[in-house]
Amino acid sequence: MLDFLLTSDAIMALLTLTFLEIILGIDNIVFISIAANKLPEHQQSKATTIGLIMAMVQRIILLFFVSFLIGLKEPFYIIELTWLHIAISWQAVILFVGGLFLIYKSTSEIHEKVEMPLNDENALKGRKIKSLTHAITQILLIDFIFSVDSILTAVGMTNGLHPNHNYTLVLMIIAVVISIAVMIGFANPIRKFINEHPSMQLLGLAFLILIGFMLITEAAHLSHAKLFGNEVGAIPKGYLYFAIAFSLFVEFLNFRIQKKRK
């Protein structure tokens, strides 16, 4: 286990996944803050911390559930046509549907942030919160919605890293725990940074489109899909790491240029 966690692939996956989990968690922090701010001042930080810790537990439970489904590799239905061959398994179904969901969610989120900023925040502000229990319940419901793309991102980044799926499950749990710990400790500075540099969140959503596409091709590869006699291959994760690292480097240069102009 330790040998796997110390490999370059596992470390790169952990760093990239933790970064994406934090970026994806920004909206979560915004909604949690709005819900907590409706409570008396002495309960606000308590609601935020409890909400995030319970959100972490909720995500880990979801990881176990999704990992169980992905472990079902045996095909249950085979499509055999003259131009198409697919051996469908639950693993492939989860990855394919997850990839479509990430592409849809990311595209709609980008559209919403560009065309209708603060739309969801204003809707949440209109709701009444009467007690700490009510606030935490609402925080958990909000986090469940945000957890789906977070879990699918984790699956996309770690799938195929190791033959033993339990190893990649541990890697995903570590990334979730680190990201939640960072959000608990630095929620306000992170929010402030993203508010000053909203392009970072759009960049994170753009990465999700790449991960969604990678999940779809991975599903086709694991189904041994053949289209007109040509088998669909898996996309090496190194391409994804390079795209993310290059984009972040360009964004860093952009920050420096903007800072000098100011």
From TrEMBL:
Show the stretches that span the lipid bilayer. Answer: 12-35, 47-70, 82-104, 135-155, 167-190, 202-219, 239-257
Which InterPro entries does the record cross-reference, listed alphabetically?
Integral_membrane_TerC
* Major subcellular site: membrane
Tell me the membrane topology, using the record's own terms. Answer: Multi-pass membrane protein
Kindly list the places in or outside the cell where this protein is found, as annotated in its UniProt entry: Membrane
The protein's UniProt keywords, in alphabetical order, are:
Membrane, Transmembrane, Transmembrane helix
Name the Pfam families on file: TerC
Protein family per UniProt:
Belongs to the TerC family.
The name on file for this protein is TerC family protein
Origin organism is Flaviramulus multivorans
High-level lineage: Bacteria, Pseudomonadati, Bacteroidota, Flavobacteriia, Flavobacteriales
